[in-house]
Structures are given as structure tokens and as C-alpha cells.
Amino acid sequence: MAATKELQRELENKANDLNKIQKDISKNHQVRKKYTIQLGENELVLKELDLLNEDANVYKLIGPVLVKQDLAEANANVRKRIDYISAELKRLDATLQDLEEKQNSKKEAIFKVQQRIQSLQAGKAKA
Amino acid sequence: MEKKGTVTQLSSIYPAEETQKASRRVQDAIAEREQQLNQLKAFIDDNTSIMNLVQKLPDETHHNIMVPFGKAAFFPGRLIHTNELTVLLGEGYYAERTSKQTAEILKRRGKALEAQVESLKAIMQDLKAEASFFDVTADESAEGLVEIREDYVEEASGTLPAAGHTKSENTPFVEVGDKKGAYEDEEYIRLLARMAELEKEEEEAAKGDVSNENEQIQNEPNSTSGQITTDEEVGSLSVEASEMPAVSKEVSSHGDYPALNNSMMNTSLEQPREKKEVQAPPTANKTAFTGSIVERAHDIRTNMPEQQIGTRSSKPVSRFKMQRK
Question: What residues of chain A lie within 8 A of the CB of B32, using their CB?
């Protein structure tokens, strides 16, 4: 009796952990989506900047004002931003994989606990 | 007739509620994509209208316009420098462009939007296919359709059972009473062709036998000798009948698959019937005699394919018997 209760508690804990991991995964997905959109936008900007003439006037909106920027500088900034976003995406991928692995192992553990509970109950029914 | 496979209610594998739930989820996803698509279409419309405007602006050196002032007020104004535009490139970057250059930027942007629309449409098509699949499954399980799955027993070669397995997975929904449909794959057609071939061979062999016996009859037309040949016939038949158990044993020794057991049962069931017919001939001479010959030919037909094909597969044989009955 006590053993089953303990197992049940263990199962509950594991289920909670699994829930947490799943929440993390969905959060990760959302962040990823945002970054992918930003990456697309930055790539578009870079393409347009590459097409501009050397002497074209480029501005950056900082708060309420447009600040004039050097084209080369703007170009470098956008590239840096793209690099940053790509690195971030890679990092997110790694964490996502990690989380998924954790999720799978948790699922397996839960399955095992469930089996143990079942076998215990079956044994009790026989007895 | 014979039990060869399992019949499962489709609703027990895919409960109607669950499939409906799944289909609803896919429908939601489709609706979401639809919204995205509409948004993209609105962007494209905006893009084309602004492109038209930008191309028209430099036609005049200045335009008389109403300048928005605050949220609700306008005042008359004049738009000058009609060929100078500051274009937002994204991410807070602006560039000073002429209207012609702006039009080009907008064109490129339009193309990017079109590409997005295309990919979205492809995704939606996939989702729609998925949804229709779920719907069909839900309907079928609600209608109480059953899935009939027969084991494709193959003991000699290891590759064929795998093929049979995938086949049963590929066609999980078999209409009731449409057992044939499940097996109309290449494998089965090939087997049938092979069986037909063997059958023809046996039939030809049997024909040869028949003509031989007929000659015997013509040569010795009196009833007593006819009686003798019949007796001979009976003897040979009973020998063959006693051979039957051995054959079935041979078949069963290949493995204890259910289909094999069935075929064994079949042969053992057939035996008494044939023996009865064999015992009939002496009462009515001539007709019974031809009958016994037919019986023999038929006997060979049942025996031979089983001996030859039985080692390959037991299922087709039992099916063949089914057709014969």
C-alpha cells in the first residue's frame, strides 16, 4: 500500500517535470519564430543596402529621430546583427534538442513507473 | 469460411471522437494559415498601390494635398520634392531614394511576398490533405467499418513476409466483404499467375490420364472388365487418399501459423468426402467410372499445387481451394 502511494507520488513529480519541459519547449519555439522573422527582415535589409550606391544617404531610426549613418557602417551593423541572430538560433536549436532529449527520457521514466504501479496492482489483485 | 486473419473494428483503433479531435486541430491550423495568407495578400495589395503612387508622384513638380494633422484634422498643403523619398528598408534603416529606385525596391519586396504566399499555399495544401484524411477516418470509424488484416505467411523466403507486412499497413482500410482488394498487389498477382501455370500443367497431365483410361474403356467395353478398372481406380484413389494426411503433416511441419493449420484442416475435411465418392462407383458403372476419373484429376489438382506451392506459401493454396468449392 505504502509502496504504491510512493510510486504514485513519484509519477506525479515526473509528470510535473515533463509538463515544465514541454512548456520550455513551446517557449523555445516561440522565441525561435521571432528570431527567424527578424533574420528574414535583416537579410532583406542587407540585400537592399548592397544594391545602394556608395553615396546614398542612409538613416537609422533611433527613437523618434532619423540619424544619418554611413552606408558602410550600416552595412557592417546589419551583418553583425545577422551573425548574432544566427548564433542565437543555433543556440536555441541546441537547447531545443537538449530539452527534447530530456523530455523523452522523462517520458520513458514515467512509463516505467506506470508499469511498476500496474504490476503492483496486478499482484495485489491476485493476492 | 475459414478464419485467416483478424477483424478489428476501425473505431477501436481510431475512436471517432479522437479522430474528430485531430481533424479539428488540423482545421484550426488551416484557419491560422488562412489568416496569415490573408495578411500577406493585404501586404501585396498595399505594396502594389504604393508602387502605383510612387510611380505617379514625380509626374508633377508639386501636388496639392490634404496634410493629416493629428487624428481627425487635415489642412491643405503642398507636396514638393516629388522625386525624393525616404524608404524604410526594415529594422529601422531608411534610405534616400528616387521614386524610380523606390519602385524597384517595392518590386523586389513584392516578389518576396509572392514567394511567401506560395510556400504558405503549399503548407495549406498539405494540411488540407491531412484534414481530409482525418475526416475520412472519422467517418469510417463512425460507420462501424472493420479492418481485416490477414497474416501473409511465408516460411521459405524472408523477404516476402516483410512485403506482406508493409502491404497490410499500406491498405489498412479494407471495405467489408472486399477481402480481395487487400491482396491485389503485385505479389499476389504474381503468385496467382504461378498457380495458374501449375494448375494448367496438372490439368494437362490429368487430361493425358483421362484419355488413357478412355482408351482402356474402349478397348474393353464389357462391364466386368469395366468393373475391374473401377476397382483399380478405387484402389489407387484410396492410396492417394491415404497419402493426404502425410501431405498435410508435411505442410504443418513448416510452422504452426494459423493459416497453415487451416489448410491442414481443409485437407482433412475434404478427405472423407472424397472417400465417399470413391466408394460410390461400383453401383453405377459407366457414369461412376468417369466420375471417379474426374475425381482423380481433381485429386491431383488439390494434391500437386499443395506439394509444390505448400512449401512456398500456404495462404494462396487455401484461397485456391476456396474458389474451387
Answer: none
